[in-house]
């Protein structure tokens, strides 16, 4: 039997890296949501990072990118979705992204702009799992697939100064995946496709 081809239009293809850290009091100390976009019909391609650090010793609230037009469109998209973690109103800052690919010890990014350098590390990665979410499991208007990797530990530094905090089991994922997901994770090869009525979300018989 030949491989099935999903008849819907491909909307986005990216790797989405996330870290949220909490300090000993349970207060959020850092948030990073980084999109490494390979293809998007509406956004274009490039890297965009939404970064907030609430550590008193290193405070940041910024959107950095190597593709300013892509960042502007991504900010509009997230604003429509109700994103409130990072200030989306200011101009994006052009930055250099250095990616450290997934390996046994973890993976990470270094992001540099103007006088700042942020190092983010996902440490002690779990075995990956494949997620299939035909609409409306995660979104009513998108069939979504991704290879998830969780990190048991994570770290972030700002200009060489470590941010205090650790990742945690994020219960917001219970309604989406049936269990918590580490607040430090990556969705690799995340693909979003327009659903087609009468078709299963994975292009085959399984749902």
The topology string of helices and strands comes to EEEEHEEEEEEEEHEE
Instruction: Provide the structure class.
Output: mainly beta
Rg, rounded, reads: 17 Å
**Helix content estimate:** under 10%
Strand content: over 45%
Residue runs with pLDDT of under 50 for 5 or more positions: 198-207
Count of individual beta strands:
14
What is the arithmetic mean of pLDDT? 92
Q: Main β-sheet: number of strands, strand sense, barrel status?
A: 12 strands, mixed
| Helical run tally | 2
**Form type:** globular
Distance between the termini: 19 Å
List the helices and strands and how they pair.
Elements: E1 10-22, E2 28-40, E3 46-55, E4 58-65, H1 68-80, E5 93-94, E6 96-103, E7 106-113, E8 116-125, E9 129-133, E10 143-158, E11 161-162, E12 169-170, H2 174-177, E13 181-182, E14 184-193
Parallel strand pairs: 4-5
Antiparallel strand pairs: 1-2, 1-14, 2-3, 3-4, 6-7, 7-8, 8-10, 9-10, 10-11, 10-14, 12-13
């Amino acid at each position: 039997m030949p491989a099935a081809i999903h008849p819907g239009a491909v909307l986005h293809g990216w790797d989405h890296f996330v870290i949220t850290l909490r300090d000993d009091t349970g207060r959020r100390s850092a948030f990073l949501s980084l999109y490494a976009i390979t293809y998007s019909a509406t956004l274009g391609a490039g890297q965009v990072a939404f970064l907030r650090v609430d550590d008193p010793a290193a405070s940041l609230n910024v959107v950095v990118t190597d593709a300013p037009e892509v960042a502007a469109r991504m900010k509009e998209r997230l604003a429509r979705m109700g994103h409130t973690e990072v200030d989306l109103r200011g101009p994006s800052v052009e930055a250099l992204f250095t990616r450290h690919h997934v390996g046994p010890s973890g993976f990470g990014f270094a992001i540099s702009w103007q006088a700042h350098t942020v190092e983010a590390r996902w440490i002690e990665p779990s075995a990956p799992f494949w997620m299939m979410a035909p609409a409306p499991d995660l979104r009513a208007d998108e069939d979504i697939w991704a290879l998830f990797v969780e990190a048991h530990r994570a770290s972030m530094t700002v200009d060489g100064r470590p941010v205090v905090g650790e990742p945690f089991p994020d219960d917001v994922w219970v309604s989406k995946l049936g269990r918590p997901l580490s607040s430090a994770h990556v969705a690799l090869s995340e693909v979003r496709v327009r659903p087609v009525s009468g078709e299963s979300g994975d292009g085959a018989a399984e749902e």
